Amino acid sequence: MWKKFTIACKYVSVEALKEIGKSLGKRDWNFSADPCNGSHGWISQPNQIPNNVAGFENNLTCDCTFLNATVCHVISIVLKSQSLQGTLPPHLVRLPFLQQIDLTRNYLSGQIPPEWGSTNLVSMFDSRGDWEYHYSREFVSSDYLFVVYFLISLSGSIPQALGNLPQIQRLHLTSNNFSGELPMSLGKLTTLKEFQIGDNNFSGPIPNFIRNWTNLTKLFIQASGLSGPIPSDIGLLTKLSDLRISDLSASSPFPSLRNLKDMTILVLRSCNISGRLPNYLDRMPSLKILDLSFNSLSGRIPTRFDALKGLDNIFLTGNMLNGSVPDWMLKGNGIDLSYNNFTVSVAGESCRSQKMNLFASSSQEDYGVLSCLAGSSCSKSWYSLHINCGGKEETINGTTVFKGDRNAGSSMFFVTGTNWAISNTGTFLDDDGGSRDEYTATNSSTLSMINPELYMTARVSPLSVTYFGFCMGNGNYTVSLHFAEIMFTDDKTFSSLGRRIFDVYLQKKLVLENFNIVDAAGDVGKAVIKKFPVTVVNGTVEIRFYWAGKGTNAIPVSGVYGPLISAISVDPDFEPPFDGEETGKSGIPVGAVIGIAAAAVFVVLLAVGILWWSICLRHERTLEQGIKMEKNMKIQSQSAAETCLSLTSLAVQSYEGVLADGTTIAVKQLSSKSKQGNREFVNEIGMISALQHPHLVKLYGCCIEGNQLLLVYEYMENNSLAHALFGQEESELELDWSTRQKICVGIARGLAYLHEESRLKIVHRDIKATNILLDKDLNPKISDFGLAKLDEEGNTHISTRIAGTLH
């Protein structure tokens, strides 16, 4: 039996351990203590893990059963996540009973010692250092080597002799620079249980000899460089539970996997698979993650897929699937159907669910990429877009506001309240099949660059993340993509060995391929901005970041890979109309509409005025006796300062009135002795009596007494916007931002009605805070139409006459 650190070590090659420690750069082994008794330096307790380093292990294990329990020998050395900066020690050969050496997550360099070929190792882990490419015949012909786990930047081709390891169970060659075809000798490795070759530069097809690996449980061929196709005999590997293949160029039908009953993770992504979805996937009872994204699959979703509703994730992104979306999918979580050709509208509550993704999932021309925003309308055009990815809202240089997207969290689809949305695809997987959904990264160190607040956070994605701007004004723009690598380090530790590689698409065109932030910026924690011209022709901007399987995926911890973006800017290459503010449905800015005075149809105004004037004069005597317009009005005269309504303008006095039925009204008094008063009286009657809208003040009627002209309006309890904003402190209203937004939107809707939606197109010409009234619920209503003019379509006369009131 084995005993760990309980029996004093009677014999151990202390000198060999000293040489091993020296080679590795291991400085904290305590040679004044017995290596086999669990002393400090030879084994670390959980409370001794430095800075809570993920995956840290420090363990030397002895077997003390030799010579009647009088002699101990070292059988295992585990030194994980210690960022050791030495070389692989040839002196392992002096530990004849050593069976395991685990040096994962360190910063070792040099070459693989040929002496290791004569050891009794049955388990060896070496992970990601800066190695020289070297193999020895002795090493690759060992009968005892059960595991080869190299994540170490080796290059060249795989030697034929690697097939001479009859007992090997795991062969991990991920994130190297291997090239050439896989040697036929690997087909003899029938004891293999795990084979991983992702992130390499191999060539040629996936060899058919993998059908010999009938003991295989894990097969990872992601961005390996192999062209494919997937071998038709892959279904013979009936023990497979985790199959991940991606980024193949050769086309193939869906492989026959019906006999793989133990499958838990099935990833066949970007494999150029065509045809229909198979009906047998429901016969994989242990299946948890299904990723068939970015292929050429077509047809309807099979009815039997209903049995997959219990899966953690289903990714069918980027195919040509059509037909209707099953109800169980619309109600599900972790399902991505974006970028497909479904023939029915899926807009609505299900479409906007943050736990599933239906973005651009419809083929209907009316929707296009906006298929999930079909219920949205563009009330205005936007001429810029600024996003602080993964973070909160930031104001840069005191002027430019970068909207934050941290509220999107782990959402698969997220729509902001303005003019942009996020579509996110994928889940972060580790080698053991675990997954996590953390789509933001936060920097914990000090950054020295311009506008560092934009680089303190970032949005990351395990596969693809798309930022989509809509309701953009058409024209030429410059897209600026802000990057800074904040998840790796530059301190010559294991965390500094990470490589993040991804692609960037702009308007569906590849603009950056195999992009490496650190290479482009020169170091980690350094900013780099990539600028691209783009033409907006349909009001949309689409920016997509895609991981094609390249780069490391376990540094500094397992599951760290995929695209990372810090901030996005979209700025016009032209002068936006009215500083990028609202434009009408015709595309003409409101500012321009107001500036272009359609010639006053004076004849119409004069006719209306004469008509009203003649009626009023005809009944002047009756009116002087107290004519009743629409209701029995009892005017309660008060000074404007004492009333709850205070409208101040030239030659105007306002009063509060009470009708016989108790209705409170507002009475505006104009003087007929003033030309302005007469003009405004006629204008108010002629204009507002023809208009009815929730955001226009309602006119009840008018009357004339002697030389006094009276207009009767609905009463507005909260006075004017000017009174609310600039009145005396004791009478000011507390307007929060949501209320202010409601007021602004109401004013905009009222103006939109005047300019475009009413039968009579009218330009107000005197919009200001005193002419915006607020009812009891703080709903805004536009008033005072004394200076308003009709806008006649087709009249191109431009008026330069000053129209607003002066103070």
TrEMBL record:
Can the keyword Cell membrane be found in this entry's annotation? no
Q: Which residues form a coiled coil?
A: none
**What PROSITE patterns does the record tag this protein with?**
PROTEIN_KINASE_DOM (PS50011), PROTEIN_KINASE_ST (PS00108)
Q: Spell out the subcellular localization from the entry.
A: Membrane
Q: Which GO MF terms are attached to this record? A: ATP binding; protein kinase activity; protein serine/threonine kinase activity
Membrane-spanning ranges? 590-613
* SMART domains assigned to the protein according to its UniProt record, in alphabetical order: S_TKc
Q: Which domain of life is it from?
A: Eukaryota
Q: Which UniProt keywords apply?
A: ATP-binding, Glycoprotein, Kinase, Leucine-rich repeat, Membrane, Nucleotide-binding, Phosphoprotein, Receptor, Repeat, Serine/threonine-protein kinase, Signal, Transferase, Transmembrane, Transmembrane helix
Give the EC number(s) under which this enzyme is classified.
Answer: 2.7.11.1
User: SUPFAM superfamilies recorded for this chain?
Assistant: L domain-like (SSF52058), Protein kinase-like (PK-like) (SSF56112)
Membrane topology term = Single-pass type I membrane protein
Q: Which Pfam families match?
A: LRR_1 (PF00560), Malectin (PF11721), PK_Tyr_Ser-Thr (PF07714)
The protein's matches in InterPro entries, at most eight in alphabetical order, are given as: Kinase-like_dom_sf (IPR011009), Leu-rich_rpt (IPR001611), LRR_dom_sf (IPR032675), LRR_Rcpt-Like_S/T_Kinase (IPR051824), Malectin_dom (IPR021720), Prot_kinase_dom (IPR000719), Ser-Thr/Tyr_kinase_cat_dom (IPR001245), Ser/Thr_kinase_AS (IPR008271)
Cellular component aspect of the GO annotation: membrane
Q: Does the keyword Transmembrane apply?
A: yes
Report domain Protein kinase positions: 617-807
Report the main location listed first in the record.
membrane
Its EC top class is transferase
One biological-process term from Gene Ontology?
regulation of innate immune response
Q: Which reaction does it catalyse?
A: L-seryl-[protein] + ATP = O-phospho-L-seryl-[protein] + ADP + H(+); L-threonyl-[protein] + ATP = O-phospho-L-threonyl-[protein] + ADP + H(+)
**What is the protein's given name?**
non-specific serine/threonine protein kinase
